Amino acid sequence: MTGTVTARSRSLRAAPRRTIPGRSLRTGVRRSRNRRTAYLYLAPAVTLYTAFVALPWLHTMWLSFFTWDGVTPGTWAGLSNYATVLTDPALRSSLLHAFGFIGFYSLLPIMIGLLLAAVIGGRGGRRHPISRTILFLPQVVPLVAVGITWKWMYATDGIVNQTLRLLGLGSVTRAWLGDFTWSYVAVGLVGTWVMLGLCLIVFQAGIQKIDTSLYEAARIDGAGPVREFFAVTLPGLRAEIGVALTITVIAALASFDVVYVTTAGGPGDSTMVPGVLIYRLAFTNGEVGAACALAVVLSALIALVVLGISRITRERS
């Protein structure tokens, strides 16, 4: 009798469970209700994004097909504004300057930020919080104020030239922002200073999640600080490097505030970037259609670059 009951209980456990129609219906209703609730939570953000980002961008694209001075009625221009963007030397030069800023806004801050993060908060620890706070300050200061401050520092009698004179390098001093050769580098280094704090904070947050046992294992194997950095810290920060690279590349390609305040694209067009040129075309030259075409091209390039970065970092993660 006992064997029969045991065999029956085993067969009941082995038999597949039948789906109860009522339970399945309730589960489907619950999922549909949760989905509607999620959409309701997303609705305010989606509405604001549509009103202030998507629709203005579509309107900008529409205006890019017209020749319009912003006052009188515009005339249909088709793709002529885009042809101008691709063929006009000044417009192409501004795009090249923006891509060149990637070295200052992105590559330099990431490399220096990795080094500082390893020194300030190495091996998963939290050291030197005051240094971290000071380096992050440029992120909380308005970029207009940053531009004005560095414009004073780069002046002929500014702190940069005064420091060089104290070091016996008076022959190197110059009007940095008025020099055709060095103005681009001077403005780019401001971008490096601005983005450094952000990269440092991102990398330090990433270091804190690395298992400290990996550092201990590396030390047991006889790894020094340099080998420890390349074997443990750098591989553990792949995701954070992707985030920092995305943010800084967008900042480089969409740069406006610092360039406009310090040089306004000068001297000549040596520091001209698309953001400043779009402003000048639309509000100074009355070429709204060309400005909108350049804005659309710039946004498309930024989207493509960010998509490429996300794909590369995802494949390597």
Describe this structure in words.
The chain is an all-alpha fold and 317 residues long. It is 74% helix and 1% strand. It contains 14 helices and 2 strands; from the N terminus they run H-H-E-E-H-H-H-H-H-H-H-H-H-H-H-H. It has helices at 2-14, 21-63, 80-87, 89-120, 129-140, 143-153, 159-166, 183-208, 212-220, 225-236, 238-253, 257-262, 274-283, 288-316, and strands spanning 66-67, 75-76. Strands 1-2 form a two-stranded antiparallel sheet. Strand 1 and strand 2 form a beta hairpin. Mean pLDDT is 85; it is low at 1-9.
Q: Would you kindly provide a brief summary of this structure?
A:
The chain has 317 residues and is an all-alpha fold. It is built from 14 helices and 2 strands; from the N terminus they run ααββαααααααααααα.
Percentage of residues in DSSP E strands: under 5%
**Number of distinct beta strands:** 2
Largest sheet: 2 strands, antiparallel
Adjacency order of strands in the biggest sheet: 1-2
Characteristic key phrases:
disordered N terminus, 317 residues, two-stranded antiparallel ribbon, 1% strand, 74% helix, 14 helices, mainly alpha, flat
List the helices and strands and how they pair.
Elements: H1 2-14, H2 21-63, E1 66-67, E2 75-76, H3 80-87, H4 89-120, H5 129-140, H6 143-153, H7 159-166, H8 183-208, H9 212-220, H10 225-236, H11 238-253, H12 257-262, H13 274-283, H14 288-316
Antiparallel strand pairs: 1-2
Helix pairs in contact: 2-14, 3-14, 4-8, 4-11, 5-8, 8-11, 9-10, 11-14, 13-14
